[in-house]
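Q: Please design a sequence for this.
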């Protein structure tokens, strides 16, 4: 780690991490899929000082009846949020198991332009066979094949982001030239299941490369900026962080905090009557805000950040904002993003040089 302060991310998809979280939501059910709902959550997270919000997604519905089974696409939600925020980073979840990497790359580059350099990408997989039918694609059946698609998809996206050099756009009215064609490049990627020639149809993102997050056992560590690691206790998280091999490491932490109306344990028990809170092998804190601060203090010795998954957003996000983040700031344990900075800058990551421009410089030097 380059900085003792933690960067805090929060997942704001749906009503919370529990599949029955909607039963304790503070809004009426018809507001779940409205733009105002996601914008309001993003505003709370930004005002509290979170570094990053993430938006879960997948081509299949997120739950089964009688729980909510709909969502708006993560990239679309991220673009809407980008226009209504100014400092918080925004990272949609976008699987590339079946999606076309060329289109994913274009969407994410556009998001970085909209947000003025605050975009990230959480790489995941579509592991349910039904997803293949939605895309009209053959089933990618085994873990190794899904990992291959993620690896190739990230490689293509990163290459396409570099396929426009930073100064490729000329915009010269006098000469009627919009771009310098010599500064656009073919990527000529050929993988096991697809090929992409390029170049991209969107200019290079403001960050050069978006911040890419994912699990290093699914995507090669060299392709990630941030590894998302799991473990049921701080010791397991520390071990996973030590093996990640990435520039930054975030721990996945699920939280159910005590509130004025009920303890975290009581709230979990109330929702467990309707559906189980799936054990994903993550560290889970159920209890007081002070207890969570202590857990995050311990984690700060091993990771650069945490991604929090609140039990119920309408109950836990206000508690995090009011009790946890201020306490972390008082102890100088939390890093708050500054206006006008890119997500890469906030995380202490350098803006990478364009691979094609760098290669041309090296060629000229010979």
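A: Design:
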């Amino acid at each position: 780690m380059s900085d003792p302060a933690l960067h805090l991310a929060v997942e704001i998809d749906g009503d919370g991490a529990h599949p029955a979280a909607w039963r304790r939501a503070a809004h009426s059910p018809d507001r779940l899929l409205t733009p105002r709902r996601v914008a309001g959550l993003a505003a709370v997270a930004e005002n509290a000082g979170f570094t990053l919000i993430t938006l879960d997604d997948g081509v299949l519905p997120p739950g089964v009846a009688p729980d909510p089974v709909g969502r708006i696409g993560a990239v679309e939600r991220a673009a809407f949020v980008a226009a209504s925020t100014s400092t918080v980073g925004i990272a949609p979840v976008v699987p590339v198991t079946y999606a076309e990497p060329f289109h994913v790359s274009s969407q994410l580059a556009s998001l970085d332009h909209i947000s003025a350099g605050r975009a990230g990408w959480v790489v995941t997989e579509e592991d349910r066979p039904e997803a293949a039918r939605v895309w009209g694609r053959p089933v990618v059946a085994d873990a190794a094949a899904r990992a291959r698609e993620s690896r190739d998809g990230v490689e293509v996206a990163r290459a396409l982001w570099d396929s426009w050099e930073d100064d490729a756009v000329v915009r010269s009215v006098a000469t009627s030239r919009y771009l310098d064609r010599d500064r656009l490049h073919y990527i000529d990627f050929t993988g096991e299941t697809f090929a992409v020639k390029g170049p991209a149809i969107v200019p290079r993102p403001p960050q050069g490369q978006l911040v890419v997050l994912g699990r290093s056992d699914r995507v090669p560590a060299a392709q990630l900026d941030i590894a998302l690691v799991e473990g049921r206790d701080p010791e397991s998280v520390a071990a996973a962080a030590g093996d990640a091999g990435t520039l930054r490491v975030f721990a996945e932490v699920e939280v159910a905090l005590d509130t004025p109306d009920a303890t975290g344990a009581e709230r979990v028990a109330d929702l467990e009557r309707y559906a189980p809170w799936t054990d994903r092998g993550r560290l889970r804190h159920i209890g007081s805000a002070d207890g969570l601060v202590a857990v995050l203090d311990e984690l700060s010795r091993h990771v650069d950040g945490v991604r929090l998954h609140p039990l119920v957003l309408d109950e836990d996000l206000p508690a995090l904002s009011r009790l946890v983040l201020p306490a972390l700031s008082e102890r100088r344990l939390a890093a708050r993003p500054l206006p006008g900075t890119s997500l890469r800058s906030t995380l202490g990551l350098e803006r990478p040089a364009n691979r094609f421009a760098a290669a041309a410089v090296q060629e000229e030097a010979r």
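Q: Thanks. Anything notable?
A: The first helix runs from residue 35 to 48. DSSP finds eleven helices and 13 strands in the chain.
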